[in-house]
Amino acid sequence: MEKRRPESTVTQPFAEKIISNVEKVVVGKRSEIELSLIAMLSGGHVLLEDVPGVGKTMMVRAIAKSLGADFKRIQFTPDLLPSDVTGVSVFNQQTMDFVFRKGPIMSNIVLADEINRTSPKTQAALLEALEEGSVTTDGETRELKRPFFVMATQNPIEYGGTYPLPEAQLDRFLFKFKIGYPSKREELEVLNRVEKRHPIEDLKEVLSLDELLNMQEEVLDVYVDETVKTYIINLVTNTRKHHAVYLGASPRASIALMKAGQAYAYMQGRDYVVPDDVKFLAPYALGHRVLLNSDAKLSNLTNERVIKDIVEQVTVPVKKEALK
């Protein structure tokens, strides 16, 4: 059985308000809500890999309602076109001109449901949005709304008729994690809550988008010492040297881990990052960014196991050290 993560240690009132509000809809997933909020504060995106029906859609909908954000869901299917995601220009006979119709990606919070079921061409339409916060259609680049947050999902069981995400696409997601099944007690609580009316219908906004944007700016001011940066680099570099890894994490992973550490520290009420922040977040930020070699796969090693080994091997800094 998978070991549960420790209870949340967030101390910021705004974070507690959002988490508590989402927990009115999603039962027993506090850590997953917290990770989603960390990604949002650091300007990143999340990939959820889990079976259907465990609350992925409800979680992102609840987060959107808690922020009063514009929310869109894109159901990825094999026949979905890039223009169905980004938008398309249509001819207006009255004005005798082309008018751009925005696609669902032009929202504050987007649920990219079953992203691995669409073609690589349509998957690629997300690359610019995830990295640059913009989309290019008909030769024109259009900025996306801010804040902009994508939560993509994929089913780890059914691979028939799917298109696995390429490394370049996976690298655009800050975190990858699972929600998992609820306990019996949590599932009973779910049944009790939805018996007469779904709680998502009564969920209220607890934080404005302007407040969230201000917090994203404040996260950038969280101090990251050179020793912590060195620790991040050592973790990422070791993914490239590990005997089980064919392709290690890129420098983008180092940036992602540092940004996530800033957001996590901010949520705990600190204006500086400590190595334990990085150590806690590393499995979620690095696991999907490495490719294992054939020997590792034959030995039934997993990405999670390899990242755990790397985290255990790299010394946590206690004082300033030079890059090695």
Textual characterization of the structure:
This protein is of the alpha/beta class and about 325 residues long. It has 2 domains: about 200 residues, P-loop containing nucleotide triphosphate hydrolases (Rossmann fold, 3-Layer(aba) Sandwich); about 90 residues, Magnesium chelatase subunit I, C-Terminal domain (Helicase, Ruva Protein, domain 3, Orthogonal Bundle), CATH 1.10.8.80. It is built from 13 helices and 11 strands. The strands form 4 sheets. It has a 5-stranded parallel beta sheet with strand order 2-5-8-1-9. β3 and β4 form a beta hairpin. α1 packs across α2, α1 packs across α3 and α9 packs across α10. The longest helix has 17 residues. The two termini are about 40 Å apart.
Amino- and carboxy-terminal Cα gap? 38 Å
The domain count comes to 2
Q: What does the oligomeric state look like here? A: single chain
Compute the gyration radius: what is it? Answer: 20 Å
Family: Belongs to the MoxR family.
GO molecular function, one term: ATP hydrolysis activity
InterPro entries: AAA+_ATPase, ATPase_AAA-3, CbbQ/NirQ/NorQ/GpvN, ChlI/MoxR_AAA_lid, P-loop_NTPase
Domain AAA+ ATPase: 42-183
Topology record:
Elements: H1 13-22, H2 30-41, E1 46-49, H3 56-67, E2 71-75, H4 82-86, E3 87-92, E4 97-102, E5 109-113, H5 120-132, E6 134-137, E7 140-143, E8 149-154, H6 167-170, E9 175-177, H7 184-194, H8 209-219, H9 226-241, E10 245-247, H10 251-267, H11 275-286, E11 291-292, H12 294-298, H13 303-313
Parallel strand pairs: 1-8, 1-9, 2-5, 5-8
Antiparallel strand pairs: 3-4, 6-7, 10-11
Helix pairs in contact: 1-2, 1-3, 9-10, 9-11, 10-11, 11-13
